[in-house]
Write a structure and sequence with these properties.
Layout lengths: L5 E9 L4 H17 L7 E7 L6 E8 L1 H4 L5 H11 L4 E11 L15 E8 L5 H7 L8 E7 L5 E8 L2 H6 L10 E9 L11
Antiparallel strand pairs: 1-3, 1-4, 2-3, 2-8, 4-6, 5-7, 5-8, 6-7
Helix pairs in contact: 1-3
Length: 200
């Protein structure tokens, strides 16, 4: 079942040498979400391979526009972030994305597996239709999103959740030619830094 099409995918960068306190602070912040009865689910990953190694990626998926207008207690969320998270890290970006079911295999909400490949594709202006037409949906879970705000556009993100690194490496991942830039990162799921996510 396809849920709402919108996702928010964001990045936090722990201060150098402060990773342990950052993680503890973020876990305390998730407790605020529990106490606030936040109905959204939040995924948490650490960048394992990529130029942003050790950065923390957090994301929520499957929302309608109306839901995105109504997150739980934004002022309280911000206050708790200032108390528990920002002393140990800083916000390094946040993107609003739209799920593209015609290009994807899945329902827009990634399976919470141990590994996920995050591919970022930057295109030249005006190349969107040609790029989307060239994408062949995968036979295994592969989720495409178009970035609507929070970064250079046109930009697309793809998530490929897999249980192991070897499962990711075993699959050939083809992308259309002629794109301006492709960045591939491998993320590790952090179950203790997720909220409302049923980890398998």
């Amino acid at each position: 079942m396809i849920q709402g099409p919108y996702a928010r995918i964001s990045v936090l960068r722990p201060h150098d040498g402060d990773t342990v306190d950052f993680e503890a602070g973020y876990i305390r912040h998730l407790e605020w979400h529990r106490q606030a009865k936040d109905p959204w689910s939040w995924y948490g990953w650490t960048v394992w391979a990529g130029e942003r190694q050790r950065c923390f990626v957090y994301a929520t998926f499957g929302h309608s526009a109306a839901e995105m207008d109504n997150p739980v207690d934004p002022a309280g969320d911000e206050r708790d972030n200032i108390i528990n998270v920002t002393p140990h890290g800083h916000f390094a970006g946040s993107a609003l994305c739209e799920y593209l079911p015609a290009l994807s295999h899945g329902n827009g909400v990634p399976t919470p597996t141990a590994r996920v490949e995050l591919t970022t594709v930057d295109l030249a202006h005006g190349a969107e239709k040609q790029f989307e037409a060239a994408i062949q949906p995968s036979e295994s879970e592969s989720l495409w999103y178009r970035v609507l705000a929070g970064g250079p556009v046109p930009r697309y993100l793809r998530l490929r959740p897999r249980p192991t690194l070897s499962a990711l490496l075993a699959e050939k991942s083809e992308l259309p030619e002629g794109v301006a830039k492709i960045t591939i990162e491998i993320l590790s799921l952090r179950p203790a830094m997720c909220y409302g996510v049923e980890v398998r």
